[in-house]
Every structure is written in structure tokens, then in C-alpha cells.
Amino acid sequence: MSETLARVWRPSTARRVVLDGFAPVPRGTSVPTPPLLAWPAKDPADVLDYELDITAAVAGHETDRIEAVTVIPTPAGAGHLVVGEIAADGRVAVVWLSGGQAGTTYRLQLTVTTASGRVLGRAVALPVLALAAQAPPAGALQTPGGATITDEDGNPILIGG
Q: What's the pTM value of the predicted model, to 2 decimals?
């Protein structure tokens, strides 16, 4: 007997990046550029939810929450990363992503607007890698253990190619 199950969706914290706090900096000092935020890699076949937590940016304003989110991936176009549903869960922006080309690290520019009018812009990197096991193409060079040998871009090296 087969039943259709009810679905309860909660964002996955496994793919959450968190903004650091906004610390005051004394005059005359330079602040090092923080590293680019990055989500864990996805396979081109994955359709997953990714999160950006802005809690630190609205600290001290307990009632502020996300009202709007825009997401612009680079590179973009046919065959590249697809931005699906965008939602907010209080102070966490949730973006559903699918597709993408293996071997490409995408840069997603997120712009978050809060209920009180704050606007935050952050870039997040998302590497897309061929994580699912795939049969090597005909003529691919392999190690004695059966692993496919690839070039620096992750493409299989073909014998005679």
C-alpha cells in the first residue's frame, strides 16, 4: 500500500552562511576585507535550499525582519545556475537553486531589504561540482584504480584527444 505523505518544510541549516557582526572600528585604522561568503558545493542535478542569516546586521532591532530578497547569479544564461523560489524565515533569506555547470563557481549577489528599510548586499560563492557518480566517457584516461584523470577544469582527458 502506498500513501502520499504530508510535507513539512523547514530550511536546512546545512547550507547556511551567517553574516559576521558589525563591529565598530577606531578612526585611522584599516579593516581587512572579509573573505567571500561561500555555500557548500552542489551537483548540477541537485535542487536545494541555501540560506543567508542576517541576524548580526540587525542586532539590537529585535522586531526587524526580511521583507524582500533579490538574487543575481554570475555567470548567467542557458545551462547555468537557476534561481527558483526565494523566501524569508524571519532574519534568514532562503534561496532554492538548481542546475549549473560542473566545474563552475558561481557568484550570487543577494540584496536583502528589511521591514525597517535596511538594505544589505552580499555576494556568496557556490561551487558546482559533478558529485554524482558518472561513468567516464569513452576514451577517458584512467588511473590503474579506475579513477578518471582530469585537466585543471575537471574535464576528463581523452586518449587521442
A: 0.73
Amino acid occupying residue 103: G
Rounded CA-CA distance 87/138 in Å is 43
Region 32-60: mean pLDDT is 91
> Can you give the residue ranges of every domain in the chain?
13-18+34-128, 134-161
Q: What is the DSSP string of the chain?
A: ---PPP------GGGEEEPPP-----TT---PPPPPEEPPPB-TT-EEEEEEE-GGGGTT-TT--EEEEEEEEES-STTSEEEEEEEEETTEEEEEEEE--TTEEEEEEEEEEETTS-EEEEEEEEEE---S--PPPTTB-B-TTSPBPB-TTSPBPBTT-
User: How far apart are the C-alpha atoms of 155 and 67, rounded to whole Å?
Assistant: 42
Class of domain 13-18+34-128: mainly beta
